[in-house]
Amino acid sequence: MEDTHHTCQWGTGERWGDAPTETGMKRLALSDTDKQARDWFVEATQALGCHTTVDAMGNIFAVRPGLKNDKAPTFVGSHLDTQPTGGRYDGILGVTAGVEMLKVLADNWVETEYPVGVVNWTNEEGARFPMSMVSSGVWAGSIPLETAHSLQEVGSGKATMAEELKRIGYLGETPASYEAMPMAAHFELHIEQGPLLEMSNKKVGVVKGVQAYKWLTVKVKGRDTHTGTTDLKSRADALLTASKMILHSHRVATASSALASTGILNLKPGSTNTVPGEVTFSLDIRAPQNETVVRVTNQIKDDFAKIAAGEDVLHSNQDCTLGLPCSVSITEDFDSPATTFHSSCIDAVRQSAHSVLGSNSKNLVMDMVSGAGHDSVYASKRCPTSMIFVPCREGVSHNPREFCSPEDCAIGAQVLLQSVIRFDRM
Amino acid sequence: MEDTHHTCQWGTGERWGDAPTETGMKRLALSDTDKQARDWFVEATQALGCHTTVDAMGNIFAVRPGLKNDKAPTFVGSHLDTQPTGGRYDGILGVTAGVEMLKVLADNWVETEYPVGVVNWTNEEGARFPMSMVSSGVWAGSIPLETAHSLQEVGSGKATMAEELKRIGYLGETPASYEAMPMAAHFELHIEQGPLLEMSNKKVGVVKGVQAYKWLTVKVKGRDTHTGTTDLKSRADALLTASKMILHSHRVATASSALASTGILNLKPGSTNTVPGEVTFSLDIRAPQNETVVRVTNQIKDDFAKIAAGEDVLHSNQDCTLGLPCSVSITEDFDSPATTFHSSCIDAVRQSAHSVLGSNSKNLVMDMVSGAGHDSVYASKRCPTSMIFVPCREGVSHNPREFCSPEDCAIGAQVLLQSVIRFDRM
Ligand SMILES: NC(=O)NCCC(=O)O
Ligand SMILES: NC(=O)NCCC(=O)O
């Protein structure tokens, strides 16, 4: 907990309570504060006897030698970047628990069979550079380095990942690749970010996999015109059209028990008395099954084209003057199919959870599937992987009030340590 | 036309055709390019024998002496600021036609009975500082100087009108007031900005008044949460709620033959995988009658509160999972009641139009009411006022493609000149 809150001095966000630690976090990937947190990570792990390597995506691998060093290390990994209005636990807990593992091993003179490591992955959130888990994705060979390097930040800035990696001094020389930096396994401790553990009074979630998701960018083009002189039927109002699309995306998702969300929306030109001629918005579509995500995405694409053309998909046209058609173009920016973790790692986590929680553990541990993506998704493509979830208050995450009690953080860290030791022995 | 296109070198906008003048304009009020256009206006009018005065709102009054100078000048006025994606005619034509009037008077050695003047009003558009016609409003005593000076620019900047007036050197010492700068009358030539003249093959609109409008700011608050782990019913999605409101505002407007428009929308935090916790958007409501604007505004306020609370105002909840309630707060930022111009000025314009257009004029002139606000709205509170409209292509304005043919501009300028001369004689 000390390390967690200590590192939250870099990128402190919105205050929500009076206690010193009752603030959120705003530590966007490759910002100045992310650099400070990275510098801490390098120093802390080196001081604990690790050798650190930075790769071409700024991923930082800290490795502690084992008795034998002819096999790949068993890694613990997560991320130090946060959402613009994020909390103190999402990602951060997984890294500080990894450092805690190194401390416990050092304090107790434990030598593992093979090396163990802790990795801080770059831009897991996809909040600044709009592709989540992008750097573990490059490591896994799933995302081309060039694509990742040329990703541009969201909002009004224009910086690319490559520029920002260079600027903060974390553009490493080691190739970002599972071949240059192989792993025996990857374990990740994370807050659940949803309400299921808390609602069912459980302490540990054994994560068997991750649901599927896609990120789309939708661009609607209409025509800039005067709000006072252009009657409703002579308008091609890109924002009215986008509003219908956003509402409709929730209907389509509802019908398939999927999720559809818009987190970014920008319009042009942005003047009170000009009808917006262009609106661009993000769409995040998720469901446990790949087929559901594909079906919802296809239906949304079809229906958005109809809405833009003026078809009455929402049954709203009779009450609301229909304007001129807009055009719509949709790009698929990111695709993360459903992931199933490795049974050996899942077993290691489950056994560790029961061991840590003791006699009543049957009532305190449950298997689950993650609603959020994590670097473990890409790690799992190249090595046995699993995750450990701990409860977070009211299931709230990506919010300054995100909270996990010190007791629950400690349980998670103990399960993480035991999982690594079990795997190392295995 | 030479002056019009010459001054459009300052703030040239998006290109839409190959010819040198086929670009739009982006000359936001009190920007560096606005300063350049202002400097031109001061030089041009002084060279034509005018005395220029700048007031505390940066309004520039150029006055040409008459035979007698014991009465207030008859003014021609409009504005040199534009929309972010505006054209070369909105406002600009009214000012350059005023300068043209001064040239014609000088070239022909005409001495008017009383002085005549040309005024360039500041920030008529309300595009940069979100209150349209604000500086004629201060001049008329309708808007407090303090309110205007402290208006903050839209978007991410933080500059106020007072700061920007000072920065570009146009914070004058003369009080911004009809008492310090009285007018005998105010005539304004403007493109129609709507399709009515073109559709009915008319050349001149005699403007009898201006419709009513209000500008509101709507702020919706929900809760930032994770898009992947928060089910639809556990969300307080400020953007989904705002989308419903925007759609609904068009329904309410449709039912009353009014207009409702949203030109600005900003959300927080702006990340693909965070449900927006806060959305702020503008609402521009217009109708010919004050009562209609008031009724529509009140209904929108009531219904927005219901939509935020989760009531099924749009009949959309059954198909679209209902989330948690959001809160909504609405401020009324600007109110421009319906305006009726002065019969003497209307007559002067009508007679001049018939005189300029000759034998077939009966088929070429029509009375009309303006859909857009103009500085003439506030001028009319303190002196006899009317306006002259000329057609613009397809009725398009607040768009780079805004266009008025040189022939139509010339007709408008001639009607303007004659209207001033008629009023001066009267
Ligand atoms: N854990 C987390 O918030 N990851 C971001 C990727 C996602 O959007 O699920
Ligand atoms: N003429 C013009 O575009 N004025 C801006 C004020 C308004 O929004 O009507």
UniProtKB/TrEMBL annotation, chains A, B:
Belongs to the peptidase M20A family. It comes from the Eukaryota. Residues 213-309 form the Peptidase M20 dimerisation domain. The keyword Transport does not apply. Keywords: Hydrolase. The keyword Cytoplasm does not apply. Coiled coil: none annotated. The chain holds residues 67 to 492 of 502 of the full protein. Signal peptide: none annotated. This is Peptidase M20 dimerisation domain-containing protein. One of its GO terms (molecular function) is hydrolase activity, acting on carbon-nitrogen (but not peptide) bonds, in linear amidines.
